Q: What sequence folds into this?
């Protein structure tokens, strides 16, 4: 057990002590709802040794600190967790606590907003489904008793208990004065919400609300830091700590030297397109990535290739074509070569519609696709347990890039 919820007979429960003695007989409030939810978890832990929760053991201390924040007076706080540690399931369990004891239509039913940077994360947060229609993630799986709706593109639905929208859609909705009052605002991938326009829109919609920022990269660059914008630190786990706690798989990194020099004297930050253009069609460099992919695919593993941006993700399409034209050996159980086949690769981008992307993700999950190539789309919000290899073909010149590409298997 974790310190958040000790085993049978262990008293007191630390989060409940830190929450304090709230007036639970009063009309339901978020603080009261969360406290009751925590009491139920504590009672189940005391009785059985395991709290009744959807969370993994390593996630419980994060949730306990979130509960303390939600039951307290502070309005803004931030949670720093490595990519792949389960931010969505933690957010869903927090929502279960926030809405605990209320029913749809109740005057005191809370309203929650989840903000994300892209459409892929909108779908993932609400919940993805397999081909049989079974929820395999998101609020649909982990908070099934709450209604969700999305406000983005042509679908502008604010009816859900939990409304999910992109930061861009938020700016438009704030400008048009269309949003209701939200009791809780979750800013996911909050380092993407630090620009002046987005930050102003978040401040507008979250006034008087409990606002919680989640990020894996709090210090996005020298000028932007989640720590400076989103109040108190609620909980923090580094990438190394996540691995040591067992939240994440161990990471192995291989570097491939290309002997290609980029002429970028005297400046730091991400490379621009003029600097990256010579690499897009560099045959030897691209073939090195294909060779590495062929090696792991021939061993029955799947992977991702992060490609160079620009020209409507053309590099991802080029890499897909090279992969699809590559033969690999088919081996029997004893390792003997019994034939050959082509690698199966697909390029994914934000320009694809949601149905097409979901079909590709399901094919990948079911093993019908060996490699996905992408630009940016899967850097945030992609968590797939069949994934074992990530190949980064896009050069990076800032510390957060490798952290974003390390994922739980």
A:
């Amino acid at each position: 057990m974790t310190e958040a919820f000790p085993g049978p007979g262990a008293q007191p429960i630390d989060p409940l002590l830190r929450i304090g003695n709230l007036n639970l007989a009063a009309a339901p409030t978020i603080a009261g709802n969360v406290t009751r939810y925590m009491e139920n978890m504590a009672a189940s832990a005391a009785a059985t040794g395991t709290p009744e929760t959807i969370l993994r053991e390593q996630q419980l201390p994060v949730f306990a600190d979130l509960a303390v924040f939600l039951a307290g007076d502070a309005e803004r706080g931030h949670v720093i967790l490595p990519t792949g540690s389960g931010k969505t399931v933690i957010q869903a369990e927090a929502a279960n606590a926030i809405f605990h004891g209320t029913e749809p239509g109740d005057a005191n039913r809370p309203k929650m907003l989840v903000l994300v940077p892209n459409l892929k994360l909108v779908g993932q947060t609400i919940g993805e489904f397999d081909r049989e229609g079974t929820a395999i993630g998101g609020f649909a799986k982990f908070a099934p008793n709450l209604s969700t709706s999305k406000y983005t593109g042509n679908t502008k639905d604010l009816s859900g208990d939990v409304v999910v929208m992109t930061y861009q859609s938020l700016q438009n909705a704030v400008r048009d004065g269309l949003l209701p009052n939200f009791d809780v605002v979750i800013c996911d991938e909050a380092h993407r919400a630090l620009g002046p326009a987005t930050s102003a829109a978040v401040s507008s919609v979250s006034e008087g609300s409990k606002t919680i920022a989640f990020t894996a990269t709090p210090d996005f660059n020298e000028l932007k830091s989640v720590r400076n914008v989103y109040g108190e630190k609620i909980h923090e786990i580094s990438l190394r700590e996540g691995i040591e706690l067992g939240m994440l798989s161990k990471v192995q990194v291989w570097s491939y030297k290309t002997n290609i020099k980029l002429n970028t004297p005297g400046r730091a930050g991400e490379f621009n397109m003029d600097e990256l253009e010579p690499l897009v069609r560099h045959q030897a460099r691209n073939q090195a990535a294909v060779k590495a992919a062929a090696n792991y695919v021939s061993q029955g593993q799947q992977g991702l290739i992060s490609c160079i941006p620009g020209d409507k993700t053309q590099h991802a399409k080029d890499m897909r074509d090279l992969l699809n034209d590559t033969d690999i050996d088919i081996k029997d159980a004893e390792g003997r070569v019994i034939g050959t086949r082509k690698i199966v690769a697909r390029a994914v981008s934000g320009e694809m519609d949601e149905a097409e992307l979901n079909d590709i993700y399901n094919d990948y999950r079911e093993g019908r696709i060996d490699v996905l190539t992408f630009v940016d789309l899967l850097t945030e919000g992609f968590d797939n347990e069949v994934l074992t290899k990530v190949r980064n073909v896009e050069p990076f010149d800032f510390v957060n890039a490798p952290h974003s590409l390390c994922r739980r298997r």
Q: What stands out?
A: The longest helix spans residues 30-48. Residues 6-13, 21-26, 398-409 have pLDDT under 50 and may be disordered.
